[in-house]
Every structure is written in C-alpha cells, then in structure tokens.
Design goal:
This protein has a 6-stranded antiparallel β-sheet with strand order 1-2-5-4-3-6, with no helix packed on it. It is elongated. With about 120 residues, it is of the alpha+beta class. It has one helix at about 5-30, and strands at about 50-55, 65-70, 75-80, 90-95, 95-100, 115-119. Helix content is about 20%, strand content about 30%. It has a domain at about 50-119. The longest helix has 25 residues, at about 5-30. The chain contains 1 helix and 6 strands; from the N terminus they run H-E-E-E-E-E-E. Keywords: Signal.
C-alpha cells in the first residue's frame, strides 16, 4: 500500500502534467498573423550635461525656481530632479533646456542634479 505522502506527490505530478498538456493544446490553437518581429541590441550612450545654472527665486533666494543646462546631443524628452525623487518636465529654448521645479523647492532640499534624457 502506498503511503499518503507518496500518493499526494503522485497526485501533484499528475495534475501538473495534465495542466501542462492543456496549456500546450491551447497555445497550439492560436492563430498569429504573419508579421515581422525581431530582437536586437544597441549601445545606449549617455548625455553630457554642461552649463548648469540654478535659477533662484527673486523674492526668496532659498528657493530654486528652475534649473537650466545644455546637453551635448539632441533629445526629445528631458526631465530633471534636484532631490532625487520629484522630476520636472524640461523645455528646450535655443540650445538650453530649462526645467521649472515644483513650487517651494528649497536650496536645502537640493541634494543632486539628476537629468533623464531620451531621443
């Protein structure tokens, strides 16, 4: 006579095999149109950020209104953060990106400039 433990193990194995068979049968029945697909790799290069200017609030210089900088290559989307968590959208004017920071971003809260850019 088989012990309960061996019986439970065999039952689990049989259920797993049955489920895998059903999954295979379902996947084999799918119809996929003949389109192109691919996979590949490419180098992701970073940007060089330069000409950084922190624009202080005129009434309270303890608050940073915005940060401006240049990138060495073209970008379509740029965001920046000075506290590492809250990112501001940036706009391009001539060759300078300007990011208006959230209201009341203090100089004291600014720990690093983090720029995320993509083309």
């Amino acid at each position: 006579m088989l012990s309960k433990r061996v019986f439970k193990t065999l039952l689990i194995v049989l259920v797993a095999l049955a489920l895998s068979g059903f999954t295979y049968a379902f996947a084999a029945a799918n119809t996929v149109p003949g389109t192109r697909a691919g996979d590949g790799t490419g180098v992701i290069s970073g940007y060089t950020v330069s000409n950084i200017v922190y624009n202080l609030n005129a009434a309270n210089p303890g608050i940073i209104d915005s940060v401006s900088f240049s990138l060495n290559e073209a970008a379509t989307t740029v965001k920046a953060s000075v506290n590492g968590t809250t990112f501001a959208d940036c706009t391009l004017s001539a060759s300078t990106w300007t990011c208006t920071l959230p209201a009341a971003t203090t100089v004291e809260a600014a720990v690093s400039l983090r720029v995320i850019a993509a083309n």
